[in-house]
Structure prediction request, 352 residues.
Amino acid sequence: MDFSVILCILPKGKTDEFRFRRHNGKNHEHTNKLERDKMYDYHIHMATERYQQTGWAEDSYAQPTNRYQDFHGALQCMYEDANFILLPNGQIALI
Amino acid sequence: MPPDTIIQDFKRKVCEEIRLEPEGIDRYRVFTPFMFQDGDHLAIVLRHNNGKWVLADEGHTYMHLTYEIDEAAFQRGTRQEVISNALDAFQVNDQDGELLMRIEEGRYGDALFSFIQALIKISDVTYLSRVRVQSTFMEDFDSLMTQTIPANRRTFNWRDAQNDPEGKYLVDCKLNGMEKPIYIFALPNDDKVRDVTIALLNFERWGHKYRSLAIFEDQESVSRKVLSRFSDVCEKQFSSLGANRERITKFIEEAIV
Prediction:
């Protein structure tokens, strides 16, 4: 229930990552401060210009989702949303 | 608006925003209006543990911190101090990364408010983070080695091909051409220091004949335990590159001769 799958980049020359997208679990509520709507569900944070302009974290805006219910589902969802191309046999086997 | 009405409004609003929802046997999720900077609310459960009711964050607060800060960074220095002080001030326990508060004498409300204050105070360590320009230490190290050591006497990212074909234990720059080559390492952080400690122990185990030289980005920023283990296996160390450029150059030039 408590997990986070994050897509971010480390801008060249900087030490802080910029988070594009964050797929969270359902163990806490979320409130979009600008829109003033609250949710208690699996939710996806995404980077927006308006939240950055207010000085809040770039990924403060989130939408509820029913597309996943665990970490693996959230990861799969990220692959789809961010157009990952998975290489065949990309993972090195543990044994 | 009369003060009594204001108080009524305060109480009503606070009561509305705090609620419990059952999540199984002797376990409730606690909903509050308090949130992190990104709009995620604090994650709090009330559960029964070994005959006592406890409030717990189930590791969420630290996980949330890692969105902004590397985990190692909030385990030392000013951030670690802020976290320790918050835990002590509000009598919250850190049990393997889970923050816990036992409810004593039926004082659920007091415990909740103290717990919330502790979690918020801990989450404030993110404001100690600064966006910094990335260090140029590794580039500076490469540049110094290139300027100081002739090309035919140096190898960057050297590995022992026989014992370490996969290159798990790299030497940042190997100075060769002597009876005992010098393995030179650039050390920007604790992790690299640990890795090099392991590498040097392996070189000893494999019977290498060598001398070792370490150049820290900032030796004072390395944790004491990590540094003490490293000092047992590394022969010569310079605490920083910038302030010791001439000494490092002199050391290497004398070794080359």
Summary: Chain B is about 40% helix and 20% strand.
